[in-house]
Amino acid sequence: MTPSRPLVARSLERVWEDKLRAVEAIEQEYARWRSEEPVVIGEVERASLLRLGENLPKIWRANTTSADERKRIPRFIVREVVLDQKRDRGVRYGSRSRDKPAPSASIACSDGFTHIET
């Protein structure tokens, strides 16, 4: 559709594009700031998080915790799970072969620091 006033349309488009560029610059600056600034929590928040971690088994087993919430808890805590699929020829892994070593696995938690290897 061709606007009846092309000069007005062009000036509105120019203003719109300028605003979009400003928003993009602010978002990039914010992302840069977030990557450079460490996340600092106070002692009260730290103590609350530690208590929550200690209460996690109780929360998990509570009758008031829905199945959907139980699915969301690991998604919130665990960022990535990596399993090593390399297996030794002739070695069976599983619950019946407890004397055999299990394939290695690593879990990186969402805190960015915890890395568990088995």
Protein model, in words:
By secondary structure, the protein is mainly α. The chain has two domains: 1-37; 38-117, no CATH class. It is 52% helix and 12% strand. It is built from three helices and three strands, in the order H-H-H-E-E-E. The N and C termini lie far apart (63 Å).
Please render the helix and strand layout as text.
Layout (H helix, E strand, L loop, with lengths): L5 H31 L6 H19 L5 H11 E6 L21 E5 L5 E3 L1
Antiparallel strand pairs: 1-2, 2-3
Please describe the biggest sheet, giving its number of strands, its sense, and whether it closes into a barrel: 3 strands, antiparallel
The Rg value, from CA coordinates, equals 26 Å
> Helical proportion?
40-55%
Total number of strands: 3
Q: How many domains make up the coordinates?
A: 2
Classify the beta-strand content into a percent band. 5-15%
- Structural class by SSE content: mainly alpha
Uncertain runs: 113-118
